[in-house]
Every structure is written in structure tokens, then in C-alpha cells.
Amino acid sequence: MDPEDRAREGLFLSFQSPIEVPGVSNTDFLRMMCNERRKARGEEELDPLEFYGFLTPKLDQLNMDPSFLARNVNEGFSGGEKKRNEILQLAVMESEMSILDEIDSGLDVDALRDVAAAVNVLKEGDKGLLLITHYQRLLDAIHPDFVHVMEKGKITQTGDKSIASKLEEGGFASLA
Question: What does pTM read for this prediction?
């Protein structure tokens, strides 16, 4: 499927390095994204005022600065701001399945804490969430239900968070 069709069907994919989209405001992008998803579910589109009412609680829930809305998509954003912006997109999409590819990449300690807190808010309920990471520090902030270790393109182990701790301490050899 094309990316936009996957999104309409409820799959959200974040990127390790989100791109800038000059000339497209966050508000317009988020509203268009939201309305495409709503149409796919047979729901009415939201006009700008209704969308603002839909979006404001999400900003509050994620502890995000509303100034993000006035900026162009990722234009001039720091690494942490780009990741926060993707979490906002995830919240607006209300997807059934989300894949967050190295959401911790390039984040300082404070940004990691903020992004993790937002992900923890969104991971509640019956929606699927797959986090891809190379580092234990993300799992210290987001407590996964399962950890899968992938080596050479294959899942070699599945278990709880303790597997990630072992891997962090001793590398892949410690899991053999």
C-alpha cells in the first residue's frame, strides 16, 4: 500500500530523522491528516474551529507547547522538537498500530523524558505500539509489555524488559 493508504487504515510510522516540510504549517498538516483519517473511518471532517477543539486537549495531554502549531512542519526544529512533533502527529492520527523507529535518536536527557512521557500516555488502551531502539535508556522510561531482540534480520529472543538489560550489559553474546 502507498503510505497515505496505510495511514488512512490506521498505521502510523515515525522516522528516525523526520524531514522538514517548508511552507506547510503544522496546524494545516495535522488537520489534513486528521480529516483524511476521519474520512477513512466514515466520520465527518472537522472544520478549523472544531479541529482546534479536538487538538487542544491533545496538546495538554502531551504537555506540548501550542507554539508548535504556528510553525512549519519540522522547519528549524531541534531533534527533540521533531520527535515531540511526531508524537503529536501520532496523537492526532489515533492509529490502531504505531511504529516508532528510534524515537530516542538524538535526544538529550530532558527531551527523552518528555517524549517517553508522551508515549506512555498514548500507549494505554488496546492500540498496538512497536518501539525500535538500540538503547536501554528508552526502556527505562517506557515500560514495554514485551521485548524482542532482532539479530541479522530475525527475532532471536522474546521476553520481558530484563532481556534488554542483559543485552545492554553483555551484548548479543550474553543472550546465547
Answer: 0.84
